[in-house]
Structure formats: structure tokens, C-alpha cells
Amino acid sequence: MTFWTSNEIIDRRVDTGPFDIVGDLHGCADELIELMNRLDYRVDLGSSEGGTRVRVVNPSGRRLVLVGDLVDRGPRSPDALRIAMSMVEAGQALCVPGNHDAKFLRWLQGRNVTLTHGLDATVEQMSAEPPEFHARVRDFLEALPLHLWLDGGALAVAHAGILEEMIGSTSGEVRKFCLYGDNDGTDANGLPIRYHWAAGYSGSTAIVYGHTPVEAPDWVNNTLCIDTACCFGGKLTALRWPEREVVSVTARSAYAQRRRPLGHPPTRPTS
What we know:
- The strands form four sheets. The protein has a five-stranded mixed sheet. Strands 6-5-2-13-14 form a five-stranded mixed sheet.
- The chain has one domain (about 10-250): 4-Layer Sandwich (Purple Acid Phosphatase, chain A, domain 2).
- Helices cover about 25% and strands about 25% of the residues.
- It contains seven helices and 14 strands.
- The chain is globular, with a radius of gyration of 17 Å.
- A hairpin with a 4-residue loop joins strand 7 and strand 8 (about 155-160).
- By secondary structure, it is of the alpha/beta class.
- The two termini are about 35 Å apart.
């Protein structure tokens, strides 16, 4: 799999915002459009000769930042991808990959993956899309930075989180942490065993992330998880930066069944 490894792509400290950082989409395009309307973006998805076109108008000049997991579980992964790709290409948004995007990318690359955890829904939805769209999505996902360092160093965005010493760096260890957080093996249900890395964070850079569904965002040691379980019937949440204002919309349905309770995982045991 290929993601950008250039530190220059990650280091966007010259980008000062303001930003609207949006949590895990998981194919919930209806909720994304509703949330963007609340944030004063206007989204138009219409048909054109080449397929579905996207036009986004943002009078305020703010930029969206997507924390990854664009696909799986929800009903409209292709449209979630269209909106993300169109806005990134137009300079209206930034985006980092999530672990679901990484697995979907492996499928797009023709690699052998198991169609579980909602990837089956994405693959089915993508079957209606032309090969050109598949190629465009593959190129888009391959080009995403693992994390973003923004606003003069005051803010970092990574899908599953990032440790202070990793910010601005690239390596296999950084890639794994950004996509999966602090985890260790799997439990009896085949789910990754996760640990609450943010409980020990003490950095001055604010970290905004997703990956671990919580009932509501709450600041923990200058970190904020904004995955509020939209695909499970919760909410889709955005953090307005630098205002630190939280804006949410309620999911229209529970598109998938939760296999673990909402909330932060336990801290890693110490020996």
C-alpha cells in the first residue's frame, strides 16, 4: 500500500485555517451534507455527462478537514468519496486516511482482502460505478498524508491519534499508529484490543482524531475524539477550529450494529 511519506505533505503549519474538522463518515453522505449545511457550506450533487458532479460553495472561506474512514457501513460511500475528492482537489478541504480507507485501497489495488466490517457494503455500492471512478478513488487514497500538522503547530489531525514525538514524522510505526492507534492483538470476538493513548498525552499540540466511537466529544489532555458513531445511529460531529466549537447532526438511521460499547478504551496496563 502507498501513502505519502513526504514530511512536506504532512507539515502544513503554514495553513492557519479556520478549519471545520469532521469525524468518521463511514459512507454517511446524507449526514455529511446536512452537517456541512449547518456549517455554512452548500453542497450540490448533480448528474452530468461524465456521471455525478459535485459543487461546493463556501462563502465563509473555511476549510473542511476529514479525519478518515470515509467508507464502509453507511449507504453512500461513493458519494462521500465524491464530496471529499472534489473538495480536496478544489483546495476546499484536507483529508487523512483511516484504517477502513486503507483496507478499501488494498481492494482497489486488486489485493486479497476479506469483505468484513462494512467493506462488503462499499464494494457492492462501488459495483455501480465505472472503472474511471475506481481509478480516481485509488489515486486519491494513495496520495493522502498520514496525518496533518496545522496552524503553526498548534493542531494535528490523525485518524486514530498520534503521539507527540511522532508529529511531523513518517515511518512504519507512525503509519500504524495514525491508522490504528495503540492496539495489541485481538479479543475473543476478533476485534482489535485498543488502549486509550490520549490518557497519557501531555503535548502542547492539540490532537483531533476519530477511530474510536464515543457518545460525545470531550477534551482529554488536549486531545479530542470526534467519532460520535454516526454509522451506528449516533451523530456526525465537526470541531470548528480555532473556536473549539462542536457542531453535530443526528444520524438518519443505524446503518450497522455496534460490536462494542461506545467510549474510550482502557489505558494500557503497565508491567
